[in-house]
From TrEMBL:
Site keyed Important for catalytic activity: positions: H244
Pfam family for this entry, one: A_deaminase
Note on cofactor: Binds 1 zinc ion per subunit.
Domain of life: Bacteria
Cofactor(s) this protein cannot do without: Zn(2+)
Catalysis performed (reactions): adenosine + H2O + H(+) = inosine + NH4(+); 2'-deoxyadenosine + H2O + H(+) = 2'-deoxyinosine + NH4(+)
Protein name as catalogued: Adenosine deaminase
UniProt keyword Repressor present: no
Positions with a binding annotation for substrate: H30, D32, G193
Family of this protein: Belongs to the metallo-dependent hydrolases superfamily. Adenosine and AMP deaminases family. Adenosine deaminase subfamily.
Active-site residues, record numbering mapped to chain: E223
UniProt keyword annotations, A-Z: Hydrolase, Metal-binding, Nucleotide metabolism, Zinc
Amino acid sequence: MTSQSTAKTTAKTPTPDRIRRAPKVLLHDHLDGGLRPGTVVELARATGYQGLPETDADRLGVWFRQAADSGSLERYLETFSHTVGVMQTRDALVRVAAECAEDLAEDGVVYAEVRYAPEQHLEGGLSLEEVVEAVDEGFREGERRARDNGHRIRVGALLTAMRHAARSLEIAELANRYRDLGGGGVVGFDIAGAEAGYPPTRHLDAFEYLKRENNHFTIHAGEAFGLPSIWQALQWCGADRLGHGVRIIDDIQVHEDGTVKLGRLASYVRDKRIPLELCPSSNLQTGAADSYAEHPIGLLRRLHFRATVNTDNRLMSHTSMSREFEHLVDAFGYTLDDMQWFSVNAMKSAFIPFDERLAMINDVIKPGYAELKSEWLFQ
Ligand SMILES: [Zn+2]
């Protein structure tokens, strides 16, 4: 009896090793937020970039984390000026993209949509097209290297436009043009940057264009800023997914007796199965939650929102998909079944064609978890 129940608990317990080996799906990850510290140092040297606060890789890694943790928006933004600063040549973009795919694959990610803003990589004289082609080449190279190391991963790109700039239609057109690249290609579009003062409706022409082209997009909304931003992203702009969307919690009342009441917007998000690209560690750094245990993902998962787990900026948040899940397992006691639920949610919400998503779920994700969950039988 006891041995049986022990077997049952250990069967689904996500140890760090199992978490890493479990097939994971990542929808919200910034290319300029995931560089290896050593690569930043080497690229700075190779491209003549001045102004890194540290030239030792380990110390630079710590500096990135501390700046992101500081609570100062200025210091947080400074971290990106350095990563973007060293990503201004073709070779640098290829390398960063290849290492991104390699690192994700090593961490057990089987499908990823990685985003970047082409307009931020033009200082070295590249055109928007050259930026997209370099990153694409890097992703394909990273996929190949991963395969050589026994890992399988597919990486698609999301092209981001900056909300404070005025190039969103141009970037949307670029995303549409590069939609049919081989491999993962460019699978969609995104808007990022400071929410306050820059509502997504400023970029309506870009969203309307993409809708006319039957293309997909997500919008950073409801991260620090509240419900109006989420409402605009969905009801004015027609976003397929919400980047973060964590403030949807403001439209959910939890009563003392444990009953829950959803407002109209929260109901809409749940009923329409709008994917929430939640990024727990990043949210803690920006103050959207005080601890993992208090992060709204616990409630949103219980209420069966289409919640997904994401990294946002692996370098600045010193994280990975496995680390995010380790934190959630600690905070909420999640099992491999919960991890599978998040991973299937994310795969359902990806921007690649339905038949490919279905095959990923049925032929890669579910068998992967079944394998992990059955290990106890053979111990
Ligand atoms: Zn983001």
